[in-house]
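Re: that chain you flagged

S.,

Sorry for the slow reply, it's been a week of failed gels. I finally had a moment to sit down with the sequence you sent. For the record, here it is as I used it:
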Amino acid sequence: MSAPDALFDLAMNRAAAFLRSARPVEPGAALAEWHARTRFARRVPLEEVMLRLQHKPQGEWYWTGGPAGKWQPGKAKFP
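Prediction finished late last night. Pasting the structure tokens below so you have them in one place:
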């Protein structure tokens, strides 16, 4: 089952915000724990989230466009 684009974007942006605020020593393990507690877990695979987060530029960026989307400069319109 694939997630709608808006849900995918929300999962990506929430994951990025989690990592930014938590600043974990082991981001992969912390992200896995976070992902397991979210409503995205069944619809947005952790591997997809981690793959895109690896390519997130430094600074204020947000994800848009669903699985085929990309990082955009600035803040997301919807947290």
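What I noticed first: The chain has three helices and two strands.

Talk soon,
D.
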